[in-house]
Design brief:
By secondary structure, this protein is mainly β. The protein has a single domain, classed as Clam (outer membrane lipoprotein receptor (LolB), chain A), CATH 2.50.20.10. It has 2 helices and 12 strands, in the order αββββββββββββα. It has a 12-stranded mixed beta sheet with strand order 7-8-9-10-11-1-2-3-4-5-6-12, with helices on one face. A hairpin with a 2-residue loop joins strand 2 and strand 3. The longest helix is centred in the N-terminal third of the chain and has 11 residues.
Length: 208
Amino acid sequence: MRTLRPPLRMLFLTAPLVLVAGLGAGAAEKPLSVSYEQVLTTAKGSFVTKVWIKGDKKRVETADGREIDIVQGNTYVQIFPEQGFARRMPLAAAPSAPMPAAANKVSADGKTTTAAGTKPKNTDMVADLPCKLYELKSGEGVTRIWISDRLPFPLKWEEVDPGAGKFSYEVKNLKFADDIPEEYFQVPSGFKIVNAEPDDLPPELKNP
């Protein structure tokens, strides 16, 4: 039984790449090169994945190592090590998950949001980095987002919806690492690579 085939896979994969870049002077000085763990907590439990980012390349690996997702520019590759199989497609065609409602509300200057000009409510430390905390309220609940000037994506966010419960995402064990090997973003030698549409999977992989 596969332990992690949820929509959260693409949430993890795309979040740092689609959120606004340049949240501070340091964010645009050189290509981003980091590794970290990300923890998603929902009513169903907590899930941990490992992440490596180097420029426009990103690798996300499930905790059990049974699935690896890679983004290189506009290309998305999904790798299944146990099957020696990989499928490749345009990033725009990749299986996706809805982003948390407030994830795209932080403006490029990192100082305000589109939600009625909300200002940072407080400062806090997440993953050993100082962050600005934004709190957005609506009829659907409360969303809190922690933004660092050094990174182009939230280090933490929480959503509390009276009807759906609580959702949280947090970056942990963050390391700035310029020496991430290029092979981390490549399909292993000998794997079968298929240029596929989202539903074009081997039968054994279609049902998690």
